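Sample entry (464 residues):
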Amino acid sequence: MSQLSQQPAQQGAAVIQNWQPENNEFWQQQGKRIANRNLYISVFCLLLAFCVWMLFSAVAVNLNKVGFNFTTDQLFLLTALPSVSGALLRVPYSFVIPLFGGRRWTAFSTGILLIPCLWLGFAVQDATTAFSTFVVIALLCGFAGANFASSMGNISFFFPKAMQGGALGINGGLGNLGVSVMQFVAPLAISFAVFGAFGGGAQNVVGGEAIWLENAAWIWVPFLAVATLAAWFGMNDLAAAKSSLREQLPVLKRGHLWIMAVLYLATFGSFIGFSAGFAMLSKTQFPDVVILHYAFFGPFLGALARSAGGIISDRFGGVRVTLINFVLMTLFAALLFLTLPDANHAGSFGAFFVVFMGLFLTAGLGSGSTYQMIAVIFRRLTLERSKAEGRSEESSQHEAVTETSAALGFISAIGALGGFFIPQTFGLSLSLFGTPTAAMKIFLVFYLICVGITWLVYGRKKIA
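Predicted structure, serialized as tokens:
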């Protein structure tokens, strides 16, 4: 066995000094096992982060039932605000892994999510809690959404380029599954006493039914504690991933960064935006349906599709998968108009639900395929530029890994804005016109534009 392949074992569990995943001997002997361990823990932490990030999508629809008196616009705002702070924080989070290390940052960023969970559990038990307090808690939940940028950037360092699409798809897809897990678990958790010994009391809703709304937030506390410890003791920091902020910032000058940000906004932005706003939108259009019984299914489909999107793109090419996916997203967005209630008919919840599941599925699939495009495009273009400038192979590879990680993080920040714009656009359309059709027209046009961008910029040149 070569000295190189022995190196990681000599470094202990915390820091690995010599990491070369493109070296097949190194990868097969020790690299694969270490990378997979970090991936599994990362998935667990990221899944919980998505649970916390989307908490208000389940909590907001119940606030007025337990004695609060917020308007529909205010409730839509609470579901959207975590995406605002999450998107803004993804920018600095996209640069932190090379500065602090994946193990340290994953443990820290997971542990601090205990704060909004604990606070929200107490806030919902007091009907006099001000709306501004919920605004602050919602913004704190956004820290969870920022974890995606650092998590994906961290995992990109561990795997060889031929496997990055699949690894990032698994990390992102199963992490995204946290939205569905939360929307499935939260309605169950609020239906019975779990934390009564810690001050968790029941609230009465219309009809005398008792619910424990604080459980929607507190149920994640023990899991977050376990995940924090798992990250600290089970993950690794890679010395090879270290780089300064100055080395990462040039990625902001790359034109492809902004083009791919638009495409990722259309895919992941749609996934997270629909996840945040679907329950509230369904409640306004079909008030007789208990939507929380079904809301988890869309994010579940989208999360599984994201994992599949990365793997399929590794085999068939991210551009091809993304292009076909945008065509399907356009089709589903057009079909949605036929399912909504209007002055002439009551609409069909069954058709509405099926079409929206198609949107969730394609948004998830496209999230995986566009993310694979980002990894392939930035690695290839950075290597080509470095070699043209006469740099060494080692220097070129380091720059490629650094820029790719920074690009993945920054573009994910742009994509997260969809979690704000989509619920807010639905809310604005409903307040101005009494129907969400104006919002859906905007989304339809946006998807059509993305079809054109994908073909004109990448499809003809076969870049990824």
